[in-house]
Design brief:
Blueprint: E1 6-11, E2 32-33, E3 37-38, H1 41-49, E4 54-58, H2 64-70, E5 84-88, H3 103-108, H4 111-117, E6 121-126, E7 129-131, H5 135-144, E8 149-155, E9 165-169, E10 175-180, E11 189-198, H6 199-209, H7 217-227, E12 232-236, E13 241-243, H8 247-256, E14 284-285, E15 290-292, E16 295-296, E17 301-302, E18 305-307, E19 310-311, E20 316-317, E21 322-324, E22 327-328, E23 333-334, E24 339-341, E25 343-345, E26 350-351, E27 356-359, E28 377-379, E29 384-385, E30 390-392, E31 395-398, E32 410-411, E33 416-418
Parallel strand pairs: 1-4, 1-6, 4-5, 8-12, 14-17, 15-18, 16-19, 17-20, 18-21, 19-22, 20-23, 21-24, 22-25, 23-26, 24-27, 25-28, 26-29, 27-30, 28-31, 30-32, 31-33
Antiparallel strand pairs: 2-3, 6-11, 7-13, 8-11, 9-10
Helix pairs in contact: 6-7
Length: about 425
């Protein structure tokens, strides 16, 4: 039997509904980030940089782009004869066929995969966080405390603590209480959704709790282990970590990359972030262009003005166009004389000439105020915007739109155009 000290299970099946039209056709971990990467590149790079060379990636919602991106794991040096990266979609079993219904249910359905490697420890990760962490240091902490479970945790502002699983520890880091999204949190130490389990403890808990509907680590497995006296410790992490689960946090995390001294540095030699890179021609800045404090991807042609923005690869920004404080993903075309302010524009969007995006004043979203609440214009992939229209703040567009969709050539602030077949 193959023996691995620690394997990683990376949960990447999430729909990411709070990213609105950005995830109508793609899983959240496959959403572009930082002009070059996809969100899943960060935990995958952390694995190989930490010496974890066996990773199961659990996919479910819209998996095609994720599967294509991961391939056989070459960019992360995870194309191994033994171990490496394996994509694990739900599959039909002899007794039943079911989707993954919760984070722990997804891991439970892949017990056979884990048993192949007979690990001492299993590292559970989420595929939708931006951070750098050495999991080997966390494993050493786990071993030093003779722990059954170690939960990575970080301090958060107390007013935000109710959004997280909260741990209460003693002076040695042992967990005394665990509260899942409490209304009145008794601590500000938040679980990051990163766990190391001793294999036998994980297996026993998964098998025992497998009949729970929507079986989840925060709601079921961690409380079960706590009630049954398992040795649980919090590994406190104080580096950069961002859950990019909302449009606001996704936009902020991208904008932080272009600070003079970025809080999150993509350029460190000793901890590289790896990604699948296509062979693309260099970027081109025309005589008429002006670029300030921005990331510009390969193959991008800039003839207009770009300020404080993150621009992906193969983007075209026409003459006289101005792009400010925006994220443009791969393959976007911005027509001549456009103005784009505070927008997130997904892949392969085509914007006509003389379009103004992000105009007027804020208005609450008529589509979904919980999702669209950050003063941003969000445009889903493959959308088309006709010439000469004005699009207000806090708006959402998905699909091939025409002039008929814009009364008086306008989409007012808070409005949305979502074509049939597209989800908001």
């Amino acid at each position: 039997m193959i023996k691995k000290e620690m394997i990683a299970m990376l949960l990447a099946g999430g729909q990411g509904s709070r990213l609105g039209v950005l995830t109508s056709r793609v899983a959240k971990p496959a959403v572009a980030f930082g002009g070059k990467y996809r969100i899943i590149d960060f935990p995958l790079s952390n694995c190989i940089n930490s010496g974890v060379d066996t990773v199961g990636v659990l996919t479910q919602y819209q998996p095609l782009r994720l599967n294509t991106h991961i391939g056989i794991g070459i960019p992360w040096d995870l194309d191994r004869n033994i171990g490496g990266v394996t994509v694990l979609p739900p599959y039909e079993q002899s007794t039943s066929s079911e989707w993954y219904t919760g984070t722990a249910n997804a891991i439970y359905q892949n017990l056979n995969y884990m048993e192949m490697y007979n690990p001492d420890y299993v590292l559970i990760l989420s595929g939708d966080h931006i951070y750098k962490m050495d999991y080997e240091v966390m494993l050493n902490f786990h071993k030093a405390n003779n722990a059954d479970i170690t939960i990575a945790a970080m301090p958060v502002p107390i007013e935000e603590a109710s959004r997280f699983g909260i741990v209460v520890t003693d002076e040695d880091g042992a967990i005394r209480e665990f509260e899942e999204k409490p209304e009145k949190p008794s601590s500000n130490l938040a679980s990051m959704g990163i766990y190391i389990f001793s294999w036998k403890v994980l297996k026993e808990a998964l098998v025992t709790m497998s009949d729970q509907s929507n079986c989840d680590f925060g709601k079921h497995i961690i409380p079960y282990c706590h009630e049954n006296g398992k040795r649980m410790f919090a590994y406190e992490y104080n580096g950069y970590w961002k859950d990019v689960g909302t449009l606001g946090s996704y936009w902020e995390a991208n904008m932080e990359l272009i600070d003079i001294i970025p809080e999150f540095n993509l350029y460190e030699e000793y901890w590289k972030i790896y990604t699948k890179s296509d062979t693309i021609i260099p970027q081109y800045l025309a005589d008429s262009s002006f670029v300030e404090k921005s990331i510009i991807g390969e193959g991008t042609v800039v003839e207009g003005e770009v300020r404080n923005s993150v621009i992906g690869s193969n983007v075209k920004i026409g003459k006289g166009a101005v792009v400010k404080e925006s994220i443009l993903m791969d393959g976007v075309t911005i027509g001549e004389d456009c103005v784009v302010e505070k927008a997130i524009i997904a892949e392969e969007v085509k914007i006509g000439k003389r379009v103004k995006i992000g105009t007027g004043s804020f208005a609450p979203s008529k589509l979904d105020p919980r999702v669209y609440a950050f003063d941003l214009v969000t445009i889903g992939e493959n959308s088309v915007i006709p010439d000469g229209v004005q699009i207000g703040k806090n708006t959402a567009i998905s699909g091939e739109t025409t002039l008929e969709d814009y009364p008086d050539r306008q989409l007012e602030s808070g409005g949305a155009i979502v074509k049939d077949g597209d989800k908001a």
